[in-house]
Amino acid sequence: MIRAYKFLLRPTKGQAAALTDMLRDHCSLYNGALQERRDAYRHASKTSIKYGDQSAQLKEIRAFDPERQGRWSFSSQQATLRRLDKAFQAFFRRIKAGQTPGYPRFKGAGHFDTVTFPKDGDGCRWDSTPHGRHTRVRLQGIGHIRVHQHRPVRGRVKTISVKREGTRWYVVLSCDEAPAEPLPPTGAIAGIDMGVAHFLTTSDCEHVANPRFLRAMAEELAEAQRHLAAFPKRTRQRTKRHRAAARKVAKLHAKIRRQRADFHHKTARALICDHDVIAHERLNTAGMTKSPAPKPDPENDGTFLPNGAAAKARLNRSILDAGWAQFLGILANKAESAGRLVVPVDARNTSRTCPECRHVAKGNRATQTKFQCTACGYTANADHVGAMNVLNRAGLVLCDVA
After folding, report:
1. Do 230 and 345 belong together in one domain?
2. In the chain, N or C: fewer CB atoms in 10 Å?
3. Residue 278 lies in a domain
4. What is the DSSP letter of 394?
């Protein structure tokens, strides 16, 4: 199986400056290749340039600019050009599918944060032998950088990526042939219902509280954003104070993101350790968090009727703060490694179906927390009912597969 590992880098001040230069030069290469494709299509009778054409020019580019392009790994520069080629492939795929195309855009210096080395040993080297108490990774043009390796790497290191997140640097290892680590069977199965009042509820009626990390940091984050927005436009990105204010906002968002990911990993691990089979709803988070369509007033041209946008925005914020999609992805990855089974089921009417008589009605969900069947009078916690229905549907799916 394929597994990824993410470790914090501990570069020196000089190495951090060199890493920044590496990102800047790869960003320049990406933007230059994008400009070449745009110019060729506009001014050369709609000529299309492919990855192979641009990769063949790398040798000349490196010889022309040895200080900025010649010092970095050739294969990492090829990976940057492949990244642009994938963006164009996705652009044309969306056109054929009738979706919003989204033409590839130029990258700003602050929005190009990753450089990939396609092969361990070609421009980079993962040194698994600790130097004293620290592991190191060697990068061409930079040298050996200390790595905070908090867990062992299993499998064969295939690709290495260097990533910047705010003021921190990380190395991401993609390993194949990683051995599975199956857990002993427990004989337990569970269905889970994702929610906002509770992060999740199991079919055993166990509730996991929703930590609401964004709400907990909302006041401090709002103050930092107000301070950032107070700078006049003519001074933005030009003063030391503005850059410090922007870093403050980014630092708070990064903290929230790390807290949420830590919570998701620990919650998923607890579920995996206690159950052999876990069923969950197949959720379309992007569709659930869409803004409501405006309602034009037929009697007054140019005006609109209330459409509940404010209430929907609060709900969308709570859903995105919970991070259901990230959690379910982590749960699936941990289950695969531990030899567990995760079963996604149809989410429609799980909170409106009576688990006793199977009656489906909107009125069954009396309140946010109370379920009361309008046919048989069955009463229970609404989230618990949803989890039981998820488990029942998973049983039907497993029976059909068997």
Report:
1. yes
2. C
3. yes
4. H
